[in-house]
Every structure is written in C-alpha cells, then in structure tokens.
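Quick question: who can interpret this fold?

. . .
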Amino acid sequence: MIQFSPTCSFPTTSPSGFVNSPDIRSTMDIVWSCTSIIILSTWSVLHLTVPPELKPQSKLQQLRKQAYLLGRKLVWMAIMLAFPEYLVGISTTNLFACWVNTPCLEELARDDGVPWSLTHTILANIGGIVLRFSDPGEPGELCRAQSGPNGSLRRPKPEPDMEGYEFATPSMDSRIGLTPWSQSQLGESSTPPSEFLLDFQRSQENHLRGLGDIPWRPFGPHLALATGARTDTCAVLGSDDDYKARHIAPLQGNIWVLDSKQLALARTHGIIARLPRLEADEINDRNKSDGLVRLLALAQVLWLAVQLVVRRMGNIPFSALEISTLAFSSCAFIIYLSEWSKPKDVGAPFYMDADALVSPDAFARIAEAAPISFLQGRRYYIPQSVLHQVVEGKYQKKHIDRVMIFTSILSIMLFGGLHLIAWNLEFPSRVEKVFWRASALTMAIAPTVSALLVLLESVCVHRTDRCARWTVTALGPLLLSARVFIIVESYWSLYFLPPEAFYSTWARNAPRA
C-alpha cells in the first residue's frame, strides 16, 4: 500500500503570530469530512412517527425496548442512505396533505373553541393523537362521557357546517353500499373474530414480543364492525382485498391512532364531541428537535458546496466521494425544509376519550380514510412509510399521487444528475469509469420511468399500488446494484486520486463543524 506523508515547516520565531493552514489535505480529511456530513444529515433529518407505547415489565424488556427504538432509527438511516429521493417524495407529499387538511380542521377547531395550526395537523399525521375507547360493559370514560348529570344519554355535539369539504371517499361510497346494523350487532362481542383480524393480532404480537405491554387490545364492538366492513368490501369487489383489510384491521381495537383526515371524520360523525385542546407549548415540550444540530448540518452542507464550486472554478480536481456527498446532502436539505415544522422524536402520544360509540357508516369512512401504507405492515400505530389522504374538496387522492410522483421525479433527477458531474473524473480504470456513468444514468432514469408508469396508472385507473409494486420488484434490484457500486467506488477511488486533488483551497478555512 502506497503512503505519502507530507512535511510542513514550523514557525521559527516566537510569538508565532497567525499561522495559516497548510495548502494540502489528506485522504482522511476527505473521508471524515464527507462521512461526518452524511451521518450528521441522516441522523438529524429523520422525523419518525410516534412509536408504539411500550411499558416494559422488567429490566430486560427495558433494554429490548431501547434496542428496538434505536434499531428503528438505524433502519431508516440506512434507507435514507440508500434511497434519499424516496424519503423526499414521502416528506413533501405528506406536507402537502397537511397543508390541504389544516383549513378544514381549523374550521372545526373554531367551532369547538380550541387552538389548531399546521403543527397540530402534522402531529396527528405522525400518530401523536390517540382516541381511546372504554368497554361499554364497564365503567369508564366513554360511559361517563355519554351520560348527563342525571344519567341520561348525552346527544353528540351538532355537526358544524362544512360546506365545500367532502369526507366521503369515492371508492367506498361508489362501490360499497353499507347497510345500517342493529344495535345488537353493534354491541355483539361473543362472535369469534374473523381470520384477518386474528392475523393482524398475531403479526402485531410477534412484532412487539418481549418489548413490554401495549395499551391496545381487541374491542368487542369494533370486532363486529371490522368483520362487517370487510364482508361488504369483499362482496362489492368480488375478491378478498388484503389491501383494504390492512386498513380495517387496526380499527378492531380499543385504541385508534388517527391521522388528520380520520380525526376530522371522527369529529363530524360525533365520535368525539370536539377536537383535542392542545396548546403549542404542549407540543413543543415533546419535540426533541435540536436547532443547533440542524444549523450545524446545514453549515456542513453549505461548506461542501462552496468548496466544490471553488475547486471547479480553479480547475482543481475533486473526488467522487464529494460528489456523492453533495447529491445525498441536497436531498437531505429538501427534507429539512419540508419537515421543519414537524415535531421530532415524540415518544408518547396525546390521549383523548371517545364520546360516542361508532356507527357502521363512520367506521367504514374512517377505515377508508386510513393513510396508505407501503413497504411496511400495518400495526395499531401509524407506520413510517405512509401517504396521508386529504379531505376531499378542491384536492383529491389523485392530487396526492401526482404530488408524490412529481416530487419524486425532481429529487431523482437531482440525485442522479449530480452524480453525472463526475462524468469526466479520473477513475482507477476505464471499466470503472463506464460503470460509474452507467450507474449514475440508472439512478436518474430507472426511478423516473417507474414514477411515470405510476402516474400513467393513476390517470387511467385512479390507483397506483399495482404498478408501484411491479416497478419496485422489477427495477429495485437494478437500482440497488447501481447504488451499491456508487458508494463502494466513491471510497475505493480515493486511493487513485491525482496529486492535484489534494490541494486545499481558501474554503478550508471557512468555519465548519
């Protein structure tokens, strides 16, 4: 292994005065500066959904819980490293959904006399607001909430005038004709749960096994409602639709983690008498975002961009690793902007108690309005990889699909296009240069083709799940191979850099972490 150790002269007088940095940088300077930017950006940019509320019963379970929470974040760090443009699409699309749903919830909040803002909507979409049901057969908050001072049943608060908003979703209203159930059916809990409900319970139990107790449990009235909703779905669609079942099954429990659209539906159907009263200070108190860490990460990215511009203008070579870091940090910067108002690392949700039992119609609408999950199984809590639906009015579900596709295409072109800057860099061999070019083109073109196919499916048949699943299966291995080569080659090629690449510039003296 060839090594070169530069020598620099030292001051010969005392006091030494102001000593400038040497006009050289080492291989490890490049490695650590780029790696630190990637790690700092990845760790600080992740704003995960609220995790399941685990209550360990022993020290071993406490350790397992901490390992689970850490592993959850490390997994999404790895996904961010491998597919940053994927997270760009999710974050920007969900910000759009929050922006669309906030006016509707603000109108409901004005009627209820409670504060509401974009931050409240975002909190709901990350699973920070939980609706809790008490057993109708036992004394509890639900029973107390429905009874007046003299024991009489309290009428739900009248629904506000929401002219201009349409909560019904087309697929459920036009294809599934739900008939009202009798009160005996609604309260029936002795009927054995359907198999898809048991599958959900087993899957969730296996996923959280050994981590502690959770507040979620099957709830008799909701088991009957879930079975009925699934039966009606299958009867209308003519098939056993697992996709619909994944959205119905989490609602079988006594705990409902509702996003913003589902929360609005719960309010308009009288399940809750009013929206929760949450002050901004209460939300900020659970927000563990560190502004200093954000500023340091942004400063590092800015320093890298300035250094590359200076080297380019001075015709000084740079490394492929610096280009890869710039491409990655550009996506991280977009995510920073789209998630600036999102609470970070919220460990526990805000609870509110239900004020009424759920009708079959309300259950079906809330199930249909569930966030669209992909690449992850559904649990009672909201998973990380979901797209939230909008309260239909000016915007509809097709707009969510198209925003996702549009932002994904832009981020893909940005990420892949920046790697094309290294088109004429020196590589260890001609073969590696060809492979770099092919990989960069693959990263720019393959996901774009996939996004356009999904867009075509959205326009033609008003759904995106089938084409998205096919393109992930077909193009995923090719894209992953290109990513792996780019990452490996970025570090491997450092050994073969030309001598001029180790010249430092005045940007070296710029303040950075």
Summary: The first helix runs from residue 27 to 45. Confidence is low (pLDDT under 50) at residues 139-162, 166-189, 235-240. Residues 303 and 511 are 8 Å apart (CA to CA). The radius of gyration is 27 Å.
